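We emphasize that the prediction below concerns an isolated chain of 117 residues; any contacts that depend on oligomerization or on bound cofactors are therefore not represented. The input was used exactly as deposited, without trimming of termini.
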Amino acid sequence: MNNACDEEELHEARIKAALAAMPAEEKIEEMGARFKALAEPSRLKILLALSVGELCVDHIVEAVGGNQSAVSHQLKALKDNRIVKCRRDGKKILYSVSDGHVLTMIEVAKEHLNCNE
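Result of the prediction step, given as a token string:
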């Protein structure tokens, strides 16, 4: 009988731990939107290019291929999701990754590509 009580307590403790680890619903939606933005291949290429530092649109276009209009469109999506930021330097707009955690996630994903587990 005592064993069943221990199992029930363990079950309840696990549920409480899972609930405590769960962010608020709006934060989960925000996380999902950011993951969705990161998952699009052309945006991911832009972020890989920006991993070396600030770049203007011309540099990004050269690095990822495509055309200026398409790259600008994807940069806007990344900016809207607060993944990329920009600043003006004279006539140029320079783009950079706004949060180093994004680059960490990309590096982990790259490392995982070589994982045979």
